[in-house]
Amino acid sequence: MTDRVYTACLLIIGNEILSGRTQDANLPYLAKRLNELGIRLKEARVVADDEAAIVEAVNETRALYDYVFTTGGIGPTHDDITSGSVAKAFGTALERNAEAVRRLERHYPPGGLNEARLRMAEVPVGATLIDNPVSTAPGFRIGNVFVLAGVPRIMQAMFEGIAPGLVGGKPVMTRSVSCTLGEGVLAKGLGEIQARHQQVDIGSYPYYRVGGFGVSLVARGTDAGELAAVVDEIAALVTGLGATPQFDQTG
Amino acid sequence: MTDRVYTACLLIIGNEILSGRTQDANLPYLAKRLNELGIRLKEARVVADDEAAIVEAVNETRALYDYVFTTGGIGPTHDDITSGSVAKAFGTALERNAEAVRRLERHYPPGGLNEARLRMAEVPVGATLIDNPVSTAPGFRIGNVFVLAGVPRIMQAMFEGIAPGLVGGKPVMTRSVSCTLGEGVLAKGLGEIQARHQQVDIGSYPYYRVGGFGVSLVARGTDAGELAAVVDEIAALVTGLGATPQFDQTG
């Protein structure tokens, strides 16, 4: 466990997200799990099913972050172009992986493994398979890029298989306090608390709900003691401004 | 109405999205509305509350797309750094906008417009205000970049105010057909339909629900006649494979 900060980027690949048809559900899951593993999700991009766009996003982000995860585009249909695009980004070719073919042969009934499904056994030269315990067709890793399925249930199962092998730093913990004050009333004092605690990331998130408005003040960091100090200072700020701090269970 | 394709990118700015705390709800809304306006959302990025990251994302994307929309980070607290970062991306400074100050003065009770809230009246030199009919503090436009609030209700109200002024091409329409066949069974025929209709974008999206699995086949395009032809061909493919096509209302 070192103080080094490990970083990640998520590439959400798929026209169905960019058209508004499908709401991505993978980012929140990965963000929370990566935080627990001491890896910070620093950026995410939603990329179209377009080879040039995927190649550029993969190459730009794999140079910037420790880990790049992609979701989507590894199925058997014409719009599933992630594997070939990642191969191209790495300057390599797709090859039919013998182990992946064996797994697919066991999965489908006799005669079911047609040419389209065999495409799901193609991975870039030099890649290693990522197990898919839900529907068999594997993902893969090449370099620091992890290519996962888009369907959340499959993505999560793939991720949990690789999670024990991911190297991270100190887990990022979250504490939060909410109150019914306006952000503008809290801003000055909150900025002062942030200035005193540079290692903690303090966010202010207004909400509007049935029953009124308010603000959640969220502190994130790797040091439990400093997080507790920040929460105490925020609570004192809220109390000093005449309101009642609510201590939330999670951020 | 021309055949020119208008493009957009969305920059979702905020650590709360990257930590998994908050699920973005602005992308699906904007994607659908932009499609109706004949503007295609080609990319989205989730960017941290980090000046360098915002500057780079703004400058990279405003050169690539007709429109860039940002959401989040224009409130009164220390972590609201979108306006200053956008100013920096354009090589200009923030200035206190007199009209924005007047609006905020009318909005808050006497004495309520403190220094923190006055920050919400600061926009880059050369920017024009975007009205906020929900909570007053405006967004702004500079060049082809539109800076909107992150709270969905406010973002939507701001967007609807500017929507009539956005120039787009032909609206993108969606038709979809679902069935209970596996993607791998459909892939070959679907790819052939896609090859015959290059102006239509055909997506294949498997789903797993209570009651079974299936696949939604979604066609998007600007020509109603060609979309109808594609839907007919997909339905014939499904029927020919022994299943029953379900015609969905929307994509």
Outline the structure in words.
2 copies of one chain form a homodimer. Chain A is α/β, with parallel strands linked by helices. Chain A has 2 domains: 6-165, MoaB/Mog-like domain (Molybdenum Cofactor Biosythetic Enzyme, Chain A); 173-248, Ribosomal protein S10 (Alpha-Beta Plaits). Chain A is built from 9 helices and 12 strands. Chain A has helices at residues 15-18, 26-36, 51-62, 82-89, 98-107, 115-118, 152-162, 183-196, 224-240, and strands at residues 6-13, 39-47, 67-71, 94-96, 122-124, 128-130, 139-142, 145-148, 173-179, 201-209, 212-221, 246-248. In chain A, β10 and β11 form a beta hairpin. In chain A, α3 (51-62) packs across α4 (82-89) and α8 (183-196) runs antiparallel to α9. β2 (39-47) of chain A pairs antiparallel with β2 (39-47) of chain B.
Task: Give a summary of the structure in a few sentences.
Chain A is an alpha/beta fold and 251 residues long.
CATH topology of the largest domain in chain A: Molybdenum Cofactor Biosythetic Enzyme, Chain A
Structural class of chain A: alpha/beta
Count of DSSP E strands of chain A?
12
What's the domain count of chain A?
2
List low-pLDDT spans of chain A: none
Q: How is this fold's topology laid out?
A:
The structure is a homodimer of 251-residue chains.
Chain A: E1 6-13, H1 15-18, H2 26-36, E2 39-47, H3 51-62, E3 67-71, H4 82-89, E4 94-96, H5 98-107, H6 115-118, E5 122-124, E6 128-130, E7 139-142, E8 145-148, H7 152-162, E9 173-179, H8 183-196, E10 201-209, E11 212-221, H9 224-240, E12 246-248
Parallel strand pairs in A: 1-2, 1-3, 3-8
Antiparallel strand pairs in A: 4-5, 6-7, 7-8, 9-11, 9-12, 10-11
Helix pairs in contact in A: 3-4, 8-9
